[in-house]
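Sample 3 of the quickstart, ligand ribulose-5-phosphate:
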Amino acid sequence: MADLDDLREGNNFGLGIATTGNRFHVKGAEHLPWGMKDRLSRIFNPKTGRTVMLAFDHGFIMGPTSGLERIDLTIVPLIEYADCLMCTRGILRTMIPPSTNKPICLRSDAGTSILTELNDNVLIDIEDAIRLNVSAMAVMLSIGDAAYEAKTIANLYRAVDRGTRYGIPVMGVTAVGKDMVRDARYFGLASRIAAENGANIVKTYYCDGFEKVVAACPVPVVIAGGKKLPEQEALELCYKAISEGASGVDMGRNVFQSEAPAAMIQAVHAVVHENLKPEMALELFNELKNK
Ligand code: 5RP
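Result:
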């Protein structure tokens, strides 16, 4: 029987005070169910609406590329500074301590390597994503690639259908084929197609006219860092993207190939969450690097 000793009557009903309605902090997610929102809130900080995702899924295409030879030595020490980790299931299971308690954006498709062109594209079994308790699934979209556009759109579609069934958001990753022009028209098209097909987050690249890419995309846009740049340029890139509406970064090489990866991710974090100007962020980077 329930313990009825000292059972107190409620007397604090806030009569006359309207129930607090909370607007959700992630673009385009207002009408999603609770589980989806909970997962998105693990990725996007509810205070700023932004995120610093650390991408280290490159090995699924590139093998042990520079900075990712030993994930345990180079990436694990950075985990504490990231809001979310983007990686493959192989690295997650073997290298990432489950006790880190960070949300995972799981690379959920595969189909190519640096030795070939895209040759097929397969999608993870949703049950494996559930087993890994991921907060999002990342799926590539090859817009403009005559051979694989339809295949990758079909995979995104399937991932969204399955993710929706279990409350797992999907991030559409806009791949850029060699023949594509990296401009706002292309990234705007690819991002919008990702969102229209159900992606809850879009990952794309910064470009001139980026604000139009963001404006026309009904879900949050995060940027990839792309090839390694000098730290100052990478911080300028982050700042411009955030100022023009990006909801964060999903950055890899510009963090883990930096001369001081821990200092770099903290500087990126300050740009993303505190709008720190690039000059100040570079100062912060240098200060942390020399500690
Ligand atoms: C490729 C990816 C990579 O994770 C992505 O490119 C992020 O890394 P980087 O900042 O090094 O470009 O999603 O499809």
